[in-house]
Each structure stands twice: as C-alpha cells, then as structure tokens.
Request: fold
Amino acid sequence: MEEQCSVRIMGEEYSVRLGSPCQNPAKVIRDGKPYCGMHDPDAVKARRERRNAEADAKWASERERDRRREAILLLTYGISVKVFDQKRKEIREFLETLQAQIK
Ligand SMILES: [Zn+2]
Reply:
C-alpha cells in the first residue's frame, strides 16, 4: 500500500481535520480511508477495550482485597494476637468450618 495514514495528529490527540498528518504508511483501509497500524480504528478500539478490561480487573482485585481485609478485621475483632498464638489450631478449625458453611 503506497498511501499514507489519513489521521492528523495534534499533540496527544488526533483528528481527521486538524494537526499534522501521520507520517506512517497506511496498512489498512477502513470506510474508504487509509490508516497505519497504530491509528487503525479497529486497533484503537481493541487497545481501548483492553485498557478498560485491565482497569476493571485491577479495580475488582483491589475491591476483593479491601473486602477481605474488612472481613478479617470483623472476624478477628476483639481477639488479641496472644490469643491467636495460643488458640491457633482451634481458630483454624473454626474458620475452616465457617468457610465450608458459606461457600
Ligand atoms: Zn497513523
């Protein structure tokens, strides 16, 4: 493909009307317009969707972590570390029973 990408770049943004033309050679034609690999609307959309999915996964994982911390605080509220050390086995058994019940 001899054509050049039809995208015009303006700082971080790009537009079809303003800014200076992208210097990359076109790789694909979308709706009759040439685009380089970086500005191909399908690739742009795929990158955006991947970023969104990554952000969602990160948010979900942080929320899971926060909820776990909260759950641990609730479960251990009022129990001293000394008691934990003394009753480690009993506490573990209790937590395993609880886990089995709420799974
Ligand atoms: Zn381009």
Remarks:
- The chain has three helices and five strands.
- The two ends are 58 Å apart (CA to CA).
